[in-house]
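Hey L., structure's done. Input below.
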Amino acid sequence: MPRLSRTNARPERRLHAVLLAAAAALCAGAALANQVEVAWILKALAQPAPMRTDFVEVRGSAMLRTPLRLSGEYRRPDAQTLVREVRAPYAETTTIRAGEATIARAGKAPRRFSLSRAPELASLQSSFGALLAGDAQGLERTYRLTASGTRQRWTLAMVPKDAALAARVRDITLYGQGAELRCIETRPVKGDLQRTLLASAARAVTPTSNAAEFERLCRAGVAR
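Output:
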C-alpha cells in the first residue's frame, strides 16, 4: 500500500483534528446540559401532601460508646403538618404544626412547646415544606443554596442565613439521585455530624450496618 506523502497527509490530519474538536464540543455541551441546578432539584423533589418516607438517623455523642441509631417514618399529612415517628429503639412521635411542636411517648403526657424555643425544629418543618413544595424562594429566605453534580447524582448545600439557626447549625447537605432525596447530613456548630438516610437508602440499612456503610449509602456515587 503506498505511503501518503506529507502533502496529502496534512488535510487528513486537519480533518482528524476538526472531528476531535467537534466531538469534544458535543461532549462538553452534553455535560453542561446535564449539570444540576437548584431549581431543577427542587422541582424534582416536589411532592404534594400527603406523603411519607422511611428514615434511619445516626447521631454521634461523646456520652455514647456507639452512635445512636433511630429508625421510623416522616409523614406530611397536609401542607401545614410534619410528623416524625420514631419506631426504634423507642417509640416517639413529634408533630410540628402551627408554630408548635408536640412530642408524645406511650405512657406519658404529651409535651408541647413553641418552635421559637427550638429553631432546629422550626427549620426542619419549613425546610421540608419548602422542599416538598418546590419553593425555592422559601428556602432561600433561610439558606444560601448551592447545587453540584448531575441530575443523576447531585448534592444541595444549605447554609443558614438566620442568626438563631446559624448559632446551632453550620450547614445542611442533601444528597440525591434523580427525583429521590436519599440522605441529609447536618453539621451542628457543636457536636458530631448527624446523618439521616431516607427512602431507598434507609431501606438498605441492615442491623449490622456501621458508620462506614451509612456514609457509603448516603454519598455513594454522588458527585462532590
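The longest strand covers residues 68-78. The radius of gyration is 24 Å.

-- N.
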